[in-house]
Amino acid sequence: MISSQFAIARFRRDMTLGTLLNAMLLAGVFISFVLGGVSNSRFGDVLLLLGLGAVWVTLGYQSMKGSRLAAGSPQLIAAGQFDQAEHQIEQALKTFSLFRSSKLLSLHHLAVLRHAQKRWTDAAQLCSALLRQRLGALKGLSRQSRLILAESLLELGDLRGAHAAILALYSERLSLAEATKLLAVQLDYLARVNAWEAMLAGLESKVELSELMNASSSARSQALLALAAKKAGKGDWVDYLRRRAELLADASELASARPMLAELWPASSSVQPPANLGGISHSE
């Protein structure tokens, strides 16, 4: 299994080497065309250009191989095929590439894999390294990396670092998937700092958005909102949200992952949704 330190070191080395090689190839072309060549023979200049072209094509082919390896790993991670994804990402990182995008994507995919494996320290280190880079056309990776970084730091108990990562996302234009992920991370953070009133701000919208998450994230988010409602004395919301969470996940598992949620299930009880919650559908 490739370590985060090795991956980051290899990434930095290849980025530096790629920049130098690109500069040398461009310098060779510049000398041949602009400065009249390095020899008095036109044939020699043509050979130089052919040689530079051959080097570029060879390195470009290697770079494309790395890009293809990197491109296939997200599907493997989503399918839970972590070992195969690990192999592809490792090969992509070890394959030299002239293209910055290939190396940036490989490092990002490794961070996604470590996050899926719940290796929070590695995921945080990889995202931090990626966010220090100039992403250019891949600036969308910064939003995904900050989300992974925020969640990983929360799991590690670094509330200050998680808050900084969350705060940086407020000025970003997020997709719907990113907005739902941010809400899940934000609720987790606010619950840890006992910011119950902040959690309940725009409650109806948060409930609707949480229902677009995957089952486990939706259950946890609605359970956290139920806990905030309980702290604020909103009994109807407590019952409704707790019941929604119970439909999506086992209560004991939720409480095991977040012990503070045990307060919602001190004993088994029947739960009915509130009569009127601002137009939110109660249909199952």
Layout of helices and strands:
Blueprint: H1 4-33, H2 42-78, H3 82-94, H4 100-116, H5 120-131, H6 140-155, H7 159-169, H8 176-192, H9 196-200, H10 203-210, H11 215-231, H12 235-248, H13 251-257
Helix pairs in contact: 1-2, 1-4, 1-5, 2-3, 2-4, 3-4, 4-5, 4-6, 5-6, 6-7, 6-8, 7-8, 8-11, 11-12
What does this structure look like?
The structure is a single chain. The protein has helices at 4-33, 42-78, 82-94, 100-116, 120-131, 140-155, 159-169, 176-192, 196-200, 203-210, 215-231, 235-248, 251-257. It is mainly alpha-helical. It has 2 domains: 1-139, no CATH class; 174-284. The radius of gyration is 25 Å and the shape is elongated. The two termini are 44 Å apart. The model is unreliable at 268-273 and 278-284 (pLDDT under 50).
Which outline best applies?
A: elongated
- Beta-strand percent range: under 5%
Largest sheet: number of strands, sense, barrel closure: none
The portion of residues assigned to helices is: over 70%
Give the helix tally: 13
Kindly list the characteristics that best describe this protein.
284 residues; disordered C terminus; mainly alpha
